[in-house]
Amino acid sequence: MKIAILPGDGIGPEVTREAVAVLECLALPGLTLFEGDVGGIAYKRHGHPLPDETLDMARAADAILFGAVGDPTCDALERHLRPEQAILGLRKHLGLFANLRPARVFAGLEHLSPLRADIAASLDMLIVRELTGDVYFGAKGRRVSETGEHEGWDSMSYCDSEVRRIAHVAFRAAAAGGHLLTSVDKANVLETSQLWRDVVIEVAADYPAVELDHMYVDNAAMQVVSHPDRFGVVLTGNLFGDILSDLASAAVGSIGLLPSASLGERETAFGTFGLYEPIHGSAPDIAGQGKANPMATILSAAMMLRHSFGRDAEAGRIENAVSAALADGVLGGDLGGSHGTAAIGEAVRARL
Ligand code: NAI
Ligand code: MG
């Protein structure tokens, strides 16, 4: 079980340290950790935010635990040398096409959600977003018409193999969890969505235990904030997933608790190759002060055990330890509490 640890910048090293200690606490046999530089720190040491050594280490691993990148002292650099290019480069080189973002309101933290507490309490969904296709990657350009009108244009497209592979990821997650899958599209107006729907229906035949439902994206946005209990796993394309996943995260109301996974196509000996990271950034405003909440990174490590190493039981134990710590009032500054990074990590390990 080879894990590449890429702590990155700002609070990245602080939060990854606690997540690594949680993994070590499980004492899994055969676990080997490698550490590499990414982001601003990599630029400073090697002249590039994603050095070849780091990329090779990532390729050789079964999974990557990523902290965060972003360094205000690198703001003046050319775009391709900025720290944030590291994550884009990893996605591209490693073919990470499936982004998984769970959004869940932990018991006792309903008041942090901008939603009414009784609605927030039922928010527990997993958004599975396609990450490498859609309108972001289609042909695009500018043109001037004969009448002198300036026009910008982008093209949305998906081919069936792209939809099929992301659909399998979502159906597998639904089959392992709550068995409810909602595919979100705009099939009433978009041809891309019509094909999306056809392929999803075809894939559904392989998963008879999963209940499949289709929803238009505009309705889905309303339902996320009015009836989040209607969702289990949500399957959607890159554009709709970008918006819905941020909406769901904001509905949780606490940035330090949200993990994510980006899965590739490669199967490892134990599961699927993937990169795991908190959804927050490098938080330069609190970096180096021991204030960052490491729970999002610890929960990302749990996702790693589940998806890349087939260790569902251990993943569940970590998630339960985090829930228990939260229920006992172990709250970081982002949650209105006063626990620091190391104290939160210790509290989670004690409950583990
Ligand atoms: P951010 O997520 O780093 O911070 C937003 C706010 O949330 C800040 O006030 C910060 O202190 C707080 N915060 C974030 N994580 C926290 C944690 N674990 N515990 C407690 N408080 C936390 O977003 P921001 O400020 O927009 O970006 C900072 C840098 O991070 C930028 O350079 C940005 O490009 C980069 N970034 C990197 C990401 C990545 O590595 N995947 C994702 C998002 C931003
Ligand atoms: Mg976004």
Automatic annotation (TrEMBL):
* Localization of this protein: Cytoplasm
Residues reported in the UniProt entry to bind NAD(+): 281-293
Binding positions (substrate):
91, 101, 129, 218
Q: Which UniProt keywords apply?
A: Amino-acid biosynthesis, Branched-chain amino acid biosynthesis, Cytoplasm, Leucine biosynthesis, Magnesium, Manganese, Metal-binding, NAD, Oxidoreductase
GO cellular component: a single term: cytosol
For this chain's record, the cofactor binding note is: Binds 1 Mg(2+) or Mn(2+) ion per subunit.
Domain Isopropylmalate dehydrogenase-like per the UniProt entry, residue ranges: 2-348
Question: Per the UniProt record, which EC number(s) apply here?
Answer: 1.1.1.85
Q: Which cofactors?
A: Mn(2+); Mg(2+)
Primary localization class, coarse: cytoplasm
User: SUPFAM superfamilies, per this entry?
Assistant: Isocitrate/Isopropylmalate dehydrogenase-like
- Which amino acids does the record list as binding Mg(2+)? 218, 242, 246
Q: Which GO terms describe its biological process?
A: L-leucine biosynthetic process
UniProt GO MF annotations: 3-isopropylmalate dehydrogenase activity; magnesium ion binding; NAD binding
Pathway involvement of the protein, from the record: Amino-acid biosynthesis; L-leucine biosynthesis; L-leucine from 3-methyl-2-oxobutanoate: step 3/4
Which HAMAP family does the record associate with it?
LeuB_type1
Q: How does it assemble?
A: Homodimer.
What biological function has been recorded for the protein in this entry?
A: Catalyzes the oxidation of 3-carboxy-2-hydroxy-4-methylpentanoate (3-isopropylmalate) to 3-carboxy-4-methyl-2-oxopentanoate. The product decarboxylates to 4-methyl-2 oxopentanoate.
| Protein name per UniProt | 3-isopropylmalate dehydrogenase
The record lists the lineage as: Bacteria, Pseudomonadati, Pseudomonadota, Alphaproteobacteria, Sphingomonadales
